[in-house]
Amino acid sequence: MTELRVVDVTEEHLDSVWQVRIRSFGPGGDRDEWKKTALTFVADRRFLGVVDGDVLVAAARIWPFEQWWSGRRVPMGGVAGVVVAPEYRGRGVGSLLMRGVLQRCADKGYPLTGLYPATTVLYRHLGYEFAGSRYKFSFQAADLRTLGGSGTAVRKAGPADADRFLELASTAHETKRSSGPLIWPRSEIVSWLEDEDNFAYVADDGFVVYNWSDGDLVVDELIAGSEETARALWATVGSGASIAKTVHAYCAPFDPIHLLAEHEADGDARIVRWMLRLVDAPAALAARGFPEGAVLEAELRIDDPELPANTGDWHLSIADGSARLTPSEPSTDALRVGPRGLAALYAGTRLAALRGAGLVTGGDALDPALDTVFGGPTPYMLDYF
Ligand SMILES: CC(C)(COP(=O)(O)OP(=O)(O)OC[C@H]1O[C@@H](n2cnc3c(N)ncnc32)[C@H](O)[C@@H]1OP(=O)(O)O)[C@@H](O)C(=O)NCCC(=O)NCCS
């Protein structure tokens, strides 16, 4: 084994990456489709690998997302496809790769990075922590069919509606002060709407995208600006009740559908957790929204061994729905936090839980105010990546 190095994945590496992927995730998937998408990551230097001499032995890619945090968009590097060749595992290659990924996120100016962990250990060592979940609920199709809304005009949508969908989702997430949902690159949204296996419908203030899966229907996203539109869009999906008995839906645990449907969602909701990390603490806090009227002046001590620019004594000032993190002097009253605690705090985890897990120490007097400013609707995501 020669010296292992982090490199940009090039087109020439892609066959090797595919081989490591099969060994990591199992066979399947369309190789040509994968390669087409992979090249967009290569072109934008969002695909990193580890080489042993000339041999590629690990890879990971970074999606250029934005993520809603309390109703504001924050750029977020979504890390996916982290793979290490089996014969290189267990000797720090994954960690070396992920350090490269963190640095690239910083270089690209993403204040946040997020991922769905297959194992938490690797990512926690590097400062990621759980921040939210992806929920999949199952409803009776017959319940949705009778929700009404027939007075609302609903039309079939296509790729030309991509901008309209983005606009409607933005309005909804700003109004609801959502935390967690992703904003995908526009090209991805166009390609979903081009896919004839996805069915999309749009109303004046909402839309739905759904598809078939194993004889059931699956709602990928439903945005509704009013009760009538919610009823009309869910009923459009439920109109498939003569064939599909169940409608699975990716939505928030507090989505109005839970209050509209006659029978509660199946007790076996599927929950997949995702993790978050602050790459640039001042930028991440400045970009996030905060409740109007909430105020906070607090001293923070951040220790971030992986991204030392975050390390230091800081003053956190929150007012008028925005935050500012500025360098400060050491204080005995400071809240002391590492990157994992900072990520969980950012995501609105209650201070009692953070202290109970040892992720925060000191600054006890700040707890009620911190819970108020960082609190809000539970972070959720609709999509896996
Ligand atoms: C997960 C994977 C990327 C880890 O790569 P790796 O090179 O073995 O990771 P490292 O050697 O840098 O390990 C870093 C830490 O994670 C831990 N770790 C690695 N794999 C683990 C696993 N499967 N379960 C629990 N801990 C694990 C290591 O023990 C180490 O912790 P330690 O320092 O406390 O001992 C690799 O096993 C892999 O490619 N797996 C298949 C695909 C996959 O699951 N990818 C992750 C997608 S999110």
UniProtKB/TrEMBL annotation:
GO terms for biological process: aminoglycoside antibiotic catabolic process. Pfam families: Acetyltransf_17 (PF17668), Acetyltransf_9 (PF13527), SCP2_2 (PF13530). Keywords: Transferase. One of its GO terms (molecular function) is aminoglycoside N-acetyltransferase activity. It comes from the Bacteria. InterPro entries: Acetyltransf_17, Acetyltransferase_Eis, Acyl_CoA_acyltransferase, Eis_dom, GNAT_dom, SCP2_sterol-bd_dom_sf. Residues 4-161 form the N-acetyltransferase domain. PANTHER family: N-ACETYLTRANSFERASE EIS. This is Putative acetyltransferase. It comes from Kribbella shirazensis.
